[in-house]
Amino acid sequence: MARHVIAPVDELPPGTRKFLEIEGRPIAVFNIKGEYFGLMNRCPHQGAALCEGPLIGLAQSKDPGEIEYTKLGEIIRCPWHGWEFDIRTGQSYCDPRRFRVKAYAAHVEPGASVVKGPYVAETVTVKVESDYVVVEL
Amino acid sequence: MNIQFRESPEAASTPTTKTAIADCDIHPARATRTELYPYLAKRWQHHLEVYGVHAYQGMMEGPPYPKAQPNASRRDAYPPEGGPQGSSLSFMQKQLLDPNNVQLGVLNPLNTGQGIRNHELSAALCSAINDWQIDKWTSKDKRLKASIVVGNEDGLSAAAEIRERAGDKNFVQVLLLSRNVEPLGQRRYWPIYQAAEEAGLPVGVHAFGFGGNPITPSGWPSYYIEEMVGHSQCQQSALASLVLEGVFERFPKLKMVMIEAGFGWAPSLAWRLDKVWQRLRSEVPHVKRPPSEYIREQVWWTTQPMEDPERREDLFDVIKWIGWDRLLFATDYPHWDYDEPSRVLPAGVSEDNREAFYLGNARKLYGMT
């Protein structure tokens, strides 16, 4: 499993997202209140750039007229047909039997860990200024 | 340690298809409220500023039902230079026409002068929209063709507008909406069909419009989702009216295009019409042939919203009845229920039918061959 450094933490503050292509795959990384989530940026329904949609909550109802709004800011709604997916897991709420979006682990690693390696060819000075967001693929 | 550092690409990739296609339902929008003023006499600019427009039903400033997305449009279709979705030619080229290899794009402007009570204002606005379509769209991109928007409730002025535009290669059809003051077969609309037939232009009937009546036959529904499915009911009554008032009999060369209301309902409507026509034909002696014959000979259907049954064989059965030569592919760009060309048709369609579906039928109908 390869790990990909995508941004210093400062460049991905809470409430923002970053679009990138890793190994030919379009991926979006979200910072939701300090937690990071990676998601394939392609809707399994008709192929829209899924993560350009709004982040919403999930409206659920046990009975007509009783509506609960949960998971606020954790559901991505496709910009085309409004299909909804949980950004934590990629689970579809429209057609969970047939569709899910690939979710990728994203987390923060300290700068020191992303630059150290087992081999040292020649000594160079590495300045570590901050932490980085890393996606595992 | 296999860490890779990377830069973000410019934008997310867009799905593409290499096959050339026609897109028979594209909605161009105005970037600003006053964008039509250069095409309107001072008298009408003044009228709009002082009195606004009076429609056949309230809430003209917005649609009667809130939509699933702003402007009922794709969230990713806002042009980078600002303005509503569908208002920028360069962005439409980049997002729709180029990546999907659209060879023919038929423009169907909404929010025009149709369905306005003041018929002179309606005619002026429709004419302005038509000038604007040439200036802003069709003269700048040869792939795009316009629909002649007409003041639908005033058949005579509508016919005059059609005759004025007849022969102008910027236009490939006449545009009506499905919700009107009366069902579309009524006599007040006949001058439109006569002029369209003379000009050799199909008449497109697009979902929506403001006719003043409840938008379903059973009254005002509660939800947008009911309005969405109500379009097919509305088109069904419009089509029944066209058949039973004898429009197709009277104008045998008239071609109608049912736009954005599905087509899965066509066989059952035709079967019912045929059955009752056998028993009640003395009531409508001007309808000389079984209704299904007129429908199959004189009606075309755009695909968006494409029927999506669980078994693809069900879809193929419906299309077989309608005819593979009658379907016109459409995306409905930039609206939120957009159909992606590469995903919309299930596997198992012959190469000939596929070509007709995506391009051939439209080229033939709109005279592009």
From TrEMBL, chain A:
Q: Which residues form the Rieske domain?
A: 4-115
Q: Which InterPro entries match?
A: Rieske_2Fe-2S, Rieske_2Fe-2S_sf
Key words, A-Z? 2Fe-2S, Iron, Iron-sulfur, Metal-binding
Entry superkingdom: Bacteria
Q: Name one Pfam family in it.
A: Rieske
Record-linked PANTHER family: 3-PHENYLPROPIONATE_CINNAMIC ACID DIOXYGENASE FERREDOXIN SUBUNIT, FERREDOXIN-RELATED
| Protein's recorded name | Rieske (2Fe-2S) protein
**Which species is the source of this protein?**
Bradyrhizobium xenonodulans
The taxonomy runs:
Bacteria, Pseudomonadati, Pseudomonadota, Alphaproteobacteria, Hyphomicrobiales
UniProtKB/TrEMBL annotation, chain B:
UniProt xrefs under InterPro entries: ACMSD, Amidohydro-rel, Metal_Hydrolase
Location of the Amidohydrolase-related domain: 23-367
Keyword Cell inner membrane carried by entry: no
Q: Does the keyword Lyase apply?
A: yes
Q: Which UniProt keywords apply?
A: Lyase
Chain intervals for the UniProt region annotation (Disordered): 62-89
| A Pfam family assignment | Amidohydro_2
Query: Which Gene3D superfamilies does the entry mention?
Result: Metal-dependent hydrolases
Q: Name it.
A: Amidohydrolase
User: What organism does the UniProt record list as the source?
Assistant: Bradyrhizobium xenonodulans
